[in-house]
Amino acid sequence: MQYDIRVFDDPDLPSLARIYKASIRYVGNEYYSDDQIAAWSSFPDDIEAFQKWITVAMTFVAIDNQQSFLVFGGLEDHGRISSLYVSPNVMRKGIGAALLKQLISEVKIRGIATVTTEASEFSKSLFEKFGFTVKNIEHTEFNGIKFTRYAMRLRI
Known about the structure:
alpha+beta; 7-stranded mixed beta sheet; 5 helices
């Protein structure tokens, strides 16, 4: 599959919201309850908060030759990967991994020694394939619903 990776632009926001919701709803029931999926996937409904989350980071998008959005991922200035979401129709095809490589390359360009992220149950294994290790298991809450996530780190 042919695709390009580029930096996010404001008109991309609705497409990123669709990927976000679809990816959680597609793989979520393997790991999360219905209440967790509903709470987590509702985040883009708060348009201002979702836009701030996307724009506070340097967010990259992968787009195919039909201009369909496939993946997005964000990197904050201090080396934290704040997002990595893959459209269900291209999961497990290497495009999420390609975007993760792009984020790690950006960290190297910036001269940052450590990359961090908080991974979900279903993204943890991808980060581990790239050498990230779990530093802590965190318990957090979103919209009154509790979640477990993995604070992970990769030394460059």
